[in-house]
Design goal:
One of its GO terms (molecular function) is acyltransferase activity. Keywords: Acyltransferase, Lipid biosynthesis, Lipid metabolism, Membrane, Transferase, Transmembrane, Transmembrane helix. Pfam families: Acyltransferase. Pathway: Lipid metabolism. The protein is α/β, with parallel strands linked by helices. The longest helix is centred in the first third of the chain and has 22 residues. 41% of the residues are buried.
């Protein structure tokens, strides 16, 4: 089995809360939201040839605008991410996690090769310097780690979701260790980020989750039609280089152990 192969048990049928009883006015509002998201993505593709000449502050605002255009409010807590080479890592629930993590600090994303084929978002990811990985080829893993380490040594930020797959948010997977080897090799800090989703009033929700055999279109529509969604982004203290002896302990330190339900219990319930 590949070290990158996802293992999450979550499925849309078992885990995801769909909006119930959509009022008539919700449909045009959702269409308007998705139109806004599409326009922002197209604007990003048009400006992507400018590359490093685009200010990081503008990229962060653009990423927030995408999430906000989808009807999701953003709440960020914690200190600003450090400058220089940096490995950003976060739990993975939704496609929304990508712009949310970039809003913390613009970075080269680590993504599965399938993302390259996504409409609109795929070309944007490729132009943005995304490092694509083939999770089914274990022999490609050392080269991928070396490419990430090289980018980190050059002062770039690289963002990854080390669980290897999306979970619905009720529980989380275990951070895979391979990507942390790149941070060790490059001698750069690791910036843990915790992402969660709630509705107005504070109740956790799985509506934004993009899991299992869910389609991107179905997930987009669910997000756009869910009222009162709030994305909570917690920027945790960065882990300085040299403070952990190996990738195992580094991965363990970077992962939040706070889950609404133990992972093994969740796996049994949805199996």
């Amino acid at each position: 089995m590949s070290a990158w192969l996802p293992t999450a048990p979550c499925t849309p049928q078992a885990c995801v809360e769909a909006p119930a009883g959509l009022p008539a006015r919700a449909v045009p509002r959702a269409v308007l939201r998705l139109t806004g998201v599409a326009l922002l993505l197209l604007a990003g593709i048009a400006l992507s040839p400018l590359g490093a000449r685009i200010p990081a502050s503008l990229i962060r605002r653009w990423c927030r605008w995408i999430v906000r255009a989808a009807g999701v409010r953003v709440r960020v807590t914690g200190a600003a991410a450090p400058a220089g080479g940096l490995l950003l890592v976060a739990n993975h629930i939704s496609w929304l996690d990508i712009p949310l993590l970039a809003a913390v600090r613009p970075a080269r994303m680590l993504a599965k090769t399938e993302v390259r084929r996504w409409p609109v978002a795929g070309p944007l990811a490729a132009r943005g310097g995304t490092v694509f990985i083939d999770r089914d080829r274990l022999r490609a893993l050392p080269d991928t780690v070396a490419r990430i380490a090289r980018a980190l040594r050059e002062g770039a930020a690289v963002a990854a979701f080390p669980e290897g797959s999306t979970w619905c948010g009720r529980a989380q997977g275990t951070f895979r260790r391979a990507v942390f080897q790149a941070a060790l090799d490059a001698g750069v800090p690791v910036q843990p980020v915790r992402i969660g989703y709630r509705v107005t009033g504070g109740t956790a929700t799985t509506a934004p989750a993009f899991v299992g055999d869910d389609t991107l279109l179905a997930s987009l529509w669910r997000v756009a039609t869910t009222r009162g969604l709030v994305a909570e982004v917690e920027v945790r203290p960065a882990i300085p280089p040299g403070s952990r002896p190996d990738r195992r302990s580094l991965a363990r330190s970077a992962q939040s152990q706070e889950t609404a339900m133990p992972a093994w219990t969740h796996t049994v319930l949805v199996a």
